[in-house]
Design goal:
heterodimer, A: about 260 residues, alpha/beta, Rossmann fold, seven-stranded mixed beta sheet, about 35% helix, about 20% strand, B: about 1150 residues, PH-domain like, Helicase, Ruva Protein, domain 3, Cyclin A, domain 1, eight-stranded antiparallel beta sheet
């Protein structure tokens, strides 16, 4: 789904972005990363001890973002280690489990922590994972009438499993979305199992990273010049409207993964 | 391989002999018992009872056949057998011998162990020797060889079963599996030897009862089975059938295969070597450690013996001996119960070494679940931590559930203290230690890391936390574990350092975390490859990278000893704990909920510190008191784990610190009292039961140096808190979840309600609700008395000044000014309260008849409200305030339709008989009310009555000082971060109490022209300076007045007493009366005395007024009259009203009614 139209044949500027994943234990942080990095899914993934480190590139039309992903342990007692990992992070994925209300509470704590302690200007995405466990109609049905069309668009990209089983969703899209908007977070519901929406999350983050906060990747030639040139065009990146429609963004520009 | 390990050994020996003898920092010196236990891996409860230098002569099998059973001359054995010099230790149930000098003995010289090595310095069964449970000793004989040498010959139960079987089937002595015999020559004085032997005899007798346990455990040892195989091979007779048992459980590996290629690991050869060694030197409990055992462990353990040797070297085998059924009992005990830990475990069961076939089966998963669950029950403080699943899964490949369970206990409690705790302080601490070791040993690499901003612990933390199990390929991780269990945690550091060293070149090129990690990942993946693939030397080519790593770890980093680790841990412990605590604090404060927003960040921070500080210090004191008690019974009650690790020199002092793991988070009432005593003046008791210290100890919660001399009083060095009914009410009010304990959240919310809103109306309502027990909007007679009592209680040390209040900043700044101003304020407050009580009863509504009289009362009250509105205080601002406040009342009062006043019912009560008689002049000449008290129902017990919130509000607002109290003083009395703790000794001494007694005293003092309290009198430990007992209260005051020669007062007193007796008889306040004449120390008594109700309480006022005015008899008289004149403080206000100027009682009371009803109307 790489969309490299805007780049032509010229080597695109490349920069690294440090991204940290936070969230309650067993919400699927590592699985999201595994899906994003290897397009793979393991039913029984070993719990992350401390943190795991992975990288993946994300191609945007006019630049390449190399994600340095820090996937942290989710158990409560590992929380005190987190500052070690979100140090200098430019972006964060705060993950919760759609089927577990307590995980959203924990996610909110993480958001608060990041907003106060992490680097200023950190781009935070709130991600409800395990969409595959929910009934496709549930987000509109049980959750609420308040879902906008744009939200449905985002839902639609997720090829939700057709489940005969009962809907396990416990957190409505509207509730989480309202919170995300209040805190100016990117918001997605994903399934690491099916892959639904996963790359969109990372693409959206890549797009939301202000150009100014990008550090050049090692070996990227003429970084400064290129970025300066780009600066004029994408100068407004630093003021990305985080609450704006993101589903379109995700559909338009994709990751090379 | 063997050559290699020989090399390692030699190198190590060389280095070890050069090491300085271990000396531990005096500050955190572990206890001798702990070192002892750790050296021999003994369970808690073992203490070194006797020790003696000794020589161990050990006759291996080859020897034994020819030598006699006993009494072979030592000189011969010395050459034919194995000979070690060392020390023999006797503890409650173990006899231990080691050539390794014990770290705790100043006389222990390294020379005695120089021949053989081990560098664990009291942190593992290093050196050669044995650790024999006394119950494993079958026979001890004293040899008769040479009279001047005290020699013991020890026979053990080693392989007793097999021996019998062998004897039964085989007559040939050559093949009998015999027990090795140990001969020990004691090298002490004869007396020492005798004493030692006596102790041993006693221990042996005690040990008999453990024999059954020993048999139980040892039959399940794989070595027992292994050795039984040998005779079977040679004699395939009936004996083999009788022993055709299944081998004991040696882990999942027996079913699902052990990791690695057994052939490549040379498992068979290792097994044979071990069998040979154990035949010679004993098995499991009776194993004698000879130099060979260290080598055998270094080359890697054979699969099926791995579990048992781990148990033996870690000491968990000894733990099991104590209670062999602990595992099954624990499981049975908690069967069916649920916990958070179990939920967490369940999440991870399917993700623990998922590639290993055993953990893809229900069998393996089941074992893992049971072991983790059982441990979470035995140690709820740790519960379950991710990484434990991986470690336990690894253990279960090699050992049974029971074994894994006890080994996990040893791991968490001793080897990795704090690693898996809820704050993981052990992990973080060891990361810090590891970093410092890298800095020390590889400065270039360290500089590079710092320069590139690479955080080492990001890489190394998982190594330590999961013991390399999910970093290295399993077979290598297990090799590390082999050594780790023998030599202790330092192995983890040595291996870690070696890994960095081996990759040094490449790491120096890495400039970010990512590259750093991937270099090491690649390295781990290639551990089995040749370290020198291009070498022409074949042997060198065969050396794998792992072997090289181990050589580097133990050779190059041989200097890293347990001692080093302990030292470093001690060095960084405080910093690490502070970090954790700061993090916890930050997180905690952030999650306190919306009410916390009403307080400033520094206030929250202060409350957090104070809250946990109290809990921490209380726990600490409790511990110390308990320990003190325990010490009297028996010395040495310390925990080995903390001590040896250097985590805690004095475990008691460390308990409860937030950073160390689960600490109490709930405050009980006593803790709450202490908490309040720390932030308010009024919560400090007036009559300390223990001598109070002149200086309050510095708050040591976050300090790095902890005072060791905390007095053993239940309150430690902090001021003893009072116990007042008000505090109980406050506690209940804040305890919103009715758990009989307060969380930080409760406290913050509680304080936020009191302090966060600077709204007098809210504070008044708050106070009222505190006393409105049944939430019906009414406070009855009892409640009124309690309120008054609480006000007096809160105000007895003076009120907090407020910027707009009674005291000007100037006065505050100059001490003397502040003092005198304060006194004035205090007295005004007393008078305010007394007036309040009076008025309460005046305006109280009877519980009955309220309906009928409502209308009438409303009309009259409205007039009064008008009056009161215009009642003059010279202070215009106050007027305005009051006006506003009354306006504020509007809404609420109007809703309160049926809250009428009945004060004209005019039943004659004792009080009413007093009031008119004392109605004379006043400081304010206009104010008069001779009939106001006619409505006073206070002293008529037969009339149930109550006040409502509007009434209460009105009564509060009617008095300037009370108004001030509710406006700001009450909130200000909680000193948070913005103002320092007020409890300076002088402020706390009871001489500063604003009680009736002191008021009386001050009035008499001022009468003589010398303000006695102008300079604070240093504490006289609870007794007021002028002989008025603190509790004597009103009575004492009246006495004072009497001695001032006021006859009127005598009369008054009589009447008051009369009234009092009247009350007594009526039994309205019986519990108070009973205690009335207590000597005044008890809190209850004091409270009750203060409570001495409406009529009497007005006496305060006398004191106050008296002091203001010119000294002299006349003034005193005035005071007394005021005392009796109920609406004292009201008078000045009404006095300003021209219409009422004449002070006609009727008018006055009418006006008051009017005022009241007016409020209702609004």
């Amino acid at each position: 789904m790489a969309n490299t139209a805007g780049a032509g044949n010229q080597p695109k500027p490349s920069s690294s972005v440090k991204l940290v994943l936070l969230g309650e234990a067993a919400v699927g942080k590592s699985s999201l990363v595994l899906r994003f990095v290897n397009n793979d899914f393991q039913e029984n993934k070993e719990p992350t001890i401390g943190a795991a480190f992975l990288t993946q590139k994300c191609n945007l039309p006019n630049r390449t973002i190399k994600f340095e992903i820090w996937d942290t342990a989710g158990q409560e007692r590992f929380a005190s280690l987190a500052p070690m990992y979100y140090r200098n992070a430019q972006s964060a994925l705060v993950v919760y489990d759609l089927t577990k209300p307590s995980s959203l509470t924990k996610a909110k704590h993480w958001v608060a922590e990041l907003q106060r302690q992490a680097s200023p200007g950190i781009v935070i995405a709130l991600v409800g994972n395990k969409l595959d466990l929910t009934n496709p109609s549930s987000s509109t049905g049980d959750a609420t009438s308040a879902i906008s069309g744009e939200e449905d668009g985002a839902e639609g990209t997720g090829n939700v499993e057709e489940g005969d089983e009962a809907d396990a969703r416990k957190i409505s899209t509207a509730e989480a979305k309202a919170y995300a908007e209040e805190e100016s977070l990117l918001f997605f519901e994903t399934s690491a199992k099916t892959g639904a929406n996963v790359s969109e999350v990372f693409t959206a983050i890549a797009n939301a990273i202000p150009e100014t906060s990008l550090r050049g990747a090692r070996g990227a030639a003429s970084d400064a010049a290129t970025q300066a040139a780009l600066g004029g065009r994408r100068g407004d990146d630093s003021r990305v409207n985080l609450t704006g429609p993101r589903a379109e963004v995700g559909a338009k520009e994709g990751c090379a993964c | 391989m063997f050559n290699l390990s020989n090399l390692v050994q030699k190198a190590q020996n060389l280095i070890d002999s050069n090491l300085p003898s271990p000396t531990l920092g005096s500050d955190r010196r572990p206890s001798k018992a702990a070192l002892f236990r750790h050296q021999f891996r003994l369970p808690d409860g073992e203490n070194p009872l006797h020790e003696i230098p000794a020589e161990l002569t050990f006759s291996p099998e080859t020897n034994r056949g020819t030598s006699g059973r006993e009494g072979k001359p030592k000189s011969v054995d010395r050459f034919n057998g194995v000979y070690f010099a060392g020390r023999l230790h006797l503890s409650e149930s173990y006899l231990s011998f080691s050539t390794q000098g014990s770290s705790f003995l100043s006389t222990a010289s390294t020379s005695s162990s120089s021949a053989f090595t081990g560098q664990t310095h009291g942190a593992g069964p290093a050196g050669n020797g044995f650790t024999l449970p006394l119950c494993a000793i079958r026979k001890v004989e004293r040899s008769h060889s040479q009279s001047f040498i005290f020699a013991l010959s020890i026979t053990t139960w080693n392989g007793v079963k097999i021996e019998k079987a062998a004897e039964a089937t085989d007559g040939s002595p050559k093949r009998i599996v015999e027990t090795p015999k140990l001969t020990i020559q004691l090298a002490g004085s004869r007396q020492q030897c005798e004493r030692f032997c006596d102790g041993l005899k006693k221990g042996l007798r005690e040990g008999i009862k453990d024999v059954e346990n020993l048999r139980l455990v040892s039959t399940n040892c794989y070595s027992e089975y292994l050795l039984s195989l040998e005779p079977k091979k040679s004699k395939d007779t009936a004996a083999s059938e009788s022993r055709a048992t299944t081998p004991p459980d040696a882990g999942l590996g027996m079913v699902f295969r052990y990791p690695g290629d057994a052939r490549k690991l040379r498992d068979g050869a290792k097994m044979r070597l071990w069998a040979e060694y154990m035949r010679e030197s004993g098995r499991h409990y009776t194993l004698v450690r000879q130099p060979k055992v260290h080598k055998l462990i270094r080359v890697g353990l054979p699969n099926r013996l791995r579990g048992e040797i781990w148990e033996l070297t870690s000491g968990s085998l000894y733990l099991r001996l104590k209670n062999p059924n602990a595992y099954t009992e624990t499981l049975a005990k908690f069967s069916g119960q649920e916990s958070l830990a179990i939920d967490e475990i369940e999440k991870d069961l399917n993700r623990s070494l998922p590639e290993y076939p055993g953990f893809q089966s229900e069998e393996g998963i089941g074992r893992l679940r049971r072991v983790l669950t059982a441990y979470s029950w035995t140690n709820p403080e740790v519960g379950y931590c991710q990484a434990m699943n991986i470690v336990v899964a690894a253990l279960l490949i090699y050992m049974s559930e029971t074994q894994a369970f006890s080994l996990l206990s040893v791991l968490c409690d001793r080897l990795l203290p704090g690693y898996y705790s809820t704050t993981m302080y052990g992990t973080l601490l060891d990361q810090r230690v590891f970093e410092s070791l890298v800095e020390k040993t590889m400065p270039v690499l360290w500089d590079h890391l710092v320069k590139s901003d690479v955080q080492l612990s990001v890489v190394s933390l998982p190594w330590f936390l999961s013991l390399y199990i999910n970093s290295m390929p399993l077979i290598f991780a297990f090799r590390v574990l082999d050594m780790f269990f023998l030599e202790g945690p330092k192995v983890l550091f040595q291996v870690g350092l070696a890994i960095l060293r081996q990759n040094g070149e490449e790491l120096l090129d890495a400039t970010d975390d990512g590259t750093f990690i991937s270099i090491l990942k690649t390295y781990f993946a290639r551990l089995d490859e040749s370290a020198h693939p291009t070498s022409t030397n074949e042997r060198l080519r065969n050396v794998t990278r792992f072997q090289e790593l181990i050589v580097v770890a133990f050779k190059e980093f041989a200097g890293i000893t347990q001692h080093t680790i302990s030292e470093q841990r001690a060095k960084y412990k405080d910093a690490v704990l502070d970090n954790i605590e700061n993090f916890a604090k930050r997180t905690s404060i952030r999650n306190l909920g919306p009410d916390s927003k009403r307080l400033s960040a520094s206030d929250l921070s202060f409350l957090y510190d104070r809250f946990y500080g109290i809990l921490y210090e209380r726990q600490q004191r409790k511990q110390m008191i308990e320990q003190e008690a325990a010490r009297r019974k028996k010395a040495g009650l310390t925990k080995a784990n903390e001590v040896v690790s250097g985590i805690a020199g004095n475990p008691a002092v460390e308990m409860g610190r937030v950073g160390l793991g689960p600490s109490p988070t709930q405050m009980d009432y006593d803790a709450f009292r202490e908490f309040l005593a720390g932030i308010t003046k009024w919560a400090v008791t007036d009559s300390p039961s223990s001598p109070m210290r002149e200086t309050t100890e510095k708050h040591s919660y976050f300090g790095s140096i902890r005072s060791q001399s905390i007095p053993l009083s239940p309150w430690g060095s902090s001021p003893e808190p009072a116990d007042h009914e008000f505090m109980q009410r406050l506690f209940r009010k804040w305890d919103t979840d009715s758990t009989a304990a307060l969380s930080l959240q409760n406290v913050v919310t509680g304080i936020a309600h009191v302090k966060g809103t600077r709204d007098i109306m809210a504070t008044i309502s708050y106070f009222f609700e505190l006393y409105d027990d049944d939430d019906d909007g009414k406070v009855d007679r009892e409640g009124i008395l309690r309120i008054s009592e609480a006000l007096l209680f809160l105000g007895r040390r003076g009120l907090e000044p407020s910027t707009s209040g009674l005291l000007s900043p100037n006065q505050l700044q100059s001490p003397s000014g502040a003092n005198s101003a304060r006194e004035n304020g205090d007295e005004q407050f007393l008078s305010g309260v007394s007036a309040f009580i009076r008025r309460c009863f005046e305006y109280a509504d009877p519980d009955l008849k309220s309906e009928e009289t409502g209308d009438r009362a409303a009309t009259t009250a409205s007039e009064d409200a008008l009056n009161s509105f215009s009642i003059g205080d010279d202070d215009e601002e106050d007027d305005k305030d009051e006006g506003n406040l009354l306006d504020l009342n509007e809404g609420k009062t109007s809703m309160d339709g049926n809250a009428p006043s009945i004060n004209t019912l005019g039943t004659e009560t004792p009080a009413t008989s007093i009031a008119p008689s004392t109605t004379t002049t006043n400081n304010h000449p206009h104010a008069r009310s001779d009939r106001s008290t006619s409505a006073n129902l206070a002293l008529d017990p037969s009339k149930p009555l109550h006040i409502t919130l509007p009434t209460f509000r009105m009564l509060v607002l009617a008095d300037e000082t009370l108004e001030h109290f509710f406006d700001s003083a009450f909130a200000n009395s909680f000193h948070l971060s913005t103002s320092p703790h007020p409890a300076t000794p002088s402020a706390l001494s009871s001489s500063r109490l604003t009680t009736f007694a002191n008021a009386a005293h001050s009035s008499s003092g001022s009468g003589s022209g010398t303000p006695p309290r102008a300079s604070p009198v240093p504490s006289t430990a609870g007794a007021p300076p002028q002989g008025v007992p603190p509790g004597k209260g009103l009575r004492g005051m009246l006495d004072n007045i009497v001695t001032d020669g006021m006859r009127v007062a005598a009369e008054v007193k009589r009447r008051v007493d009369e009234a009092q007796r009247e009350l007594d008889r009526a039994g309205q306040v019986p519990p108070h009366e009973e205690e009335e004449d207590d000597e005044g120390e008890g809190e209850g008594g004091e409270r009750d005395r203060e409570l001495l109700e409406g009529a009497e309480a007005t006496a305060v006022d006398a004191g106050g007024k008296e002091k203001e005015g010119p000294a002299g008899q006349g003034q005193g008289r005035d005071g007394v009259q005021n005392l009796m004149d109920a609406p004292v403080t009201e008078e000045p206000r009404s006095a300003g009203l021209a219409v009422e100027g004449e002070g006609k009682g009727r008018e006055r009371s009418a006006s008051l009614e009017t005022k009241k009803s007016m409020m209702f109307e609004r």
